[in-house]
Write a structure and sequence with these properties.
- By secondary structure, this protein is an all-alpha fold.
- The chain is built from eleven helices and no strands.
- It has helices at about 30-45, 65-80, 85-95, 100-130, 140-160, 160-170, 175-200, 200-230, 235-255, 270-285, 290-310.
- The longest helix is centred in the middle third of the chain and has 29 residues, at about 100-130.
- It is globular, with a radius of gyration of 22 Å.
- Bound molecules: fe (ii) ion (2 copies).
- One fe (ii) ion binds near residues 185, 188, 215 and 341.
């Protein structure tokens, strides 16, 4: 204690603790919906080890198929492997701003779920490739080489936003953060339900069903927070939200659709390689939606989000790529992204 000022001898009660302070010594519960979602998250918790792994005979696939299916899991893990630290950061923010208790718990559940999703990505990649990561893996086929090169570019792109995100979290209100999170959750609950329906293997089906259910809860968490906070939204936040939606579209197109080249820094053969791998995976019974299906699904998900934001009079950005008109937003780069999934 040397050098530290002591107060106990000088006063009856300690001085005020400076705020914001990371630990709220209070357990207010006002948002009933959040209590329900947290309860559901506990009840629906699942263990990646308990998926029907014993039914999955990886040897029944060719190396082209294994590398192509692992490539899709690699794309997913570019988003999901950053989700635990991203939500951990948001969880800390919830504590700092002394969010009510069920909100803190809901955020904890998102972080835990996302780590499960990341674990699942790793398990599939490791099983399919016989190697623990797609970046140092030695490809066995021509398509495998293309997938590895794509994976390296995906990893490079995905890695660029973390510094931006860490700067963004203290800067933005939870209301802004939640509009971005909502976009990711709407997108992800869409894709996992499609994948569950499109896959033949029980282990894929069950993994996608479980992940999709988790994402549905995450979406509900965002919606109830918005219902609570958006009626009293700070007008200054509105243009930021519009911009974040456009940024979210560009970023998430990397998994939901195809990465737009004006934003994703990828080589000119990237898309062709990806389409080739997806075709091989699809023919092997791994149900990646086709280009047109992806486009339609992405459009529907974005329109759902638009429906939510319209209720609060938040202008929607133009997304001409999927035929949605709105406010023209052009000045976005990786630094602006609040990564979401
Ligand atoms: Fe996830
Ligand atoms: Fe999620």
């Amino acid at each position: 204690m040397a050098g530290k000022e002591r107060y106990a001898g000088k006063m009856e009660l300690p001085p005020e603790t400076e705020q914001p302070n990371v630990y709220p010594l209070t357990w207010v519960s006002e948002t009933q919906k959040m209590e329900e979602i947290f309860k559901a998250s506990t009840k629906e918790y699942w263990d990646p080890d308990s998926l029907p792994w014993d039914t999955f005979d990886v040897e029944s696939y060719s190396w082209e198929e294994r590398e192509s299916i692992a490539y899709w899991w690699t794309i997913l893990s570019v988003f999901d492997a950053s989700a635990p630290p991203v939500f951990a950061e948001a969880l800390i923010k919830c504590y700092e701003v002394h969010e009510e208790d069920p909100v803190r718990r809901c955020f904890f559940s998102v972080m835990r779920d996302e780590q499960n999703h990341e674990i699942v990505c790793g398990k599939f990649i490791t099983k399919l490739l016989g190697h623990t990561d797609p970046l140092t893996y030695e490809p066995k086929t021509e398509i495998g080489k293309k997938c590895k090169k794509n994976a390296q570019w995906l990893y490079f792109n995905g890695g660029r936003y973390w510094t931006g995100y860490k700067k963004a979290v203290p800067k933005y209100s939870l209301a802004v953060l939640f509009s971005s999170f909502l976009m990711g959750e709407i997108a992800s609950s869409t894709i996992f339900h499609q994948m569950a329906n499109g896959c033949n293997e029980p282990v894929f089906q069950e993994a996608f069903r479980n992940i999709g259910k988790d994402e549905g809860r995450h979406m509900a968490i965002c919606m109830s927070l918005m219902e609570r906070d958006y009626p009293k939204l700070d007008l200054e936040d509105v243009p930021t939200i519009t911009k974040q939606i456009r940024a979210g579209y560009l970023f998430l197109s990397g998994i939901l659709f195809e990465p737009p080249e004006d934003f994703w820094d990828i080589p000119s053969d990237f898309i062709a390689n990806q389409r080739e791998a997806e075709e091989i995976a699809r023919n092997a019974g791994f149900g990646i939606p086709t280009y047109d299906e992806k486009k339609e699904n992405w459009r529907t998900a974005i329109l759902n989000l638009k429906g939510v934001l319209d209720k609060y009079n938040i202008p929607f950005p133009a997304i001409p790529e999927v035929g949605i008109t709105g406010e023209e937003i052009s000045d976005i780069d990786m630094e602006d992204i609040i990564p979401v999934f």
